[in-house]
Specification:
alpha/beta, TIM Barrel, 8 helices
């Protein structure tokens, strides 16, 4: 079955295939027996797989990284597949289209892709609404939801802290932990926020906001993989 579906999807450009697959998945998962079948096949429940980190209990250590379901459109489907956590985003305060297309490229022989999306997403309000409509929130599922947050492309770095705080406040009630994304090479000047002083300011302000919440949420930091030891 996979080979047949793959054949047709690979007739489309990579980004079209991605969005089409998410839309199909979001529709199919609403059919009761589909969800039951997926859970039966993939959602292994075993206490031995549980991991306790950051004060959170993950039902297993295999999670879905940010970037696949940016707008939390398909989190019920991915939960049914048995992931231990799902990270949505990167989410920005305002919706933005991202970089010019084409920006997603298949490396077929390497079974890989190159992603130059540029924080394309529907914005924090739409993402929050999508999570609130999900069964994960309404049925209090064990699945952990992470919120990967960033700044809008049009926001200058000197105002970046404001964007991160807006996202933090908007998503606080619907995610279990946050990831501060300062690593993307596809948003102009974003990586400058990895420098010591801007980063200290950003994390200080977020933690300052965090401590006044009823239950402070874990705040993780996503940095570029190609930093030097000095950096």
């Amino acid at each position: 079955m996979y080979k047949i579906i793959r054949f047709f999807l690979f007739k489309l450009d990579a980004e079209t295939a991605h969005h089409l697959t998410l839309k199909w998945f979001a529709v199919l998962i609403k059919i009761p027996f589909v969800k039951s079948i997926l859970k039966f096949l993939y959602a292994i429940e075993d206490k031995k797989l549980e991991r306790n980190l950051f004060g959170l209990t993950f039902k297993n250590p295999v999670g879905l990284a940010a970037g696949l379901d940016k707008n939390a459109e398909c989190i019920d489907a991915f939960a049914a597949l048995g992931f231990g956590f799902i990270e949505i985003g990167t989410v920005t305060p305002l919706a933005q289209p991202g970089n010019d297309k084409p920006r997603l490229f298949r490396l077929i022989q390497d079974e890989a892709i190159i992603n130059r999306m540029g924080f394309n997403n529907e914005g924090m309000k739409v993402v929050k609404e999508n999570i609130l409509k999900s069964e994960i929130i309404n049925h209090k599922s064990k699945i952990i939801i992470g919120g990967n947050i960033g700044k809008n492309k049009i926001t200058p770095n000197e105002n970046a802290v404001d964007d991160y705080i807006k996202c933090f406040d908007a998503l606080y009630d619907v995610v279990d932990y946050f990831v501060v994304n300062v690593s993307s090479p596809n948003t102009p000047n974003l990586r400058a926020l990895q420098e010591k002083e801007p980063l200290k300011e950003l994390l200080f302000e977020l933690q300052n906001q965090n401590k006044y919440k009823p239950i402070p949420k874990p705040i993780l930091l996503k940095i570029a993989p190609d930093l030097t030891h000095e950096q």
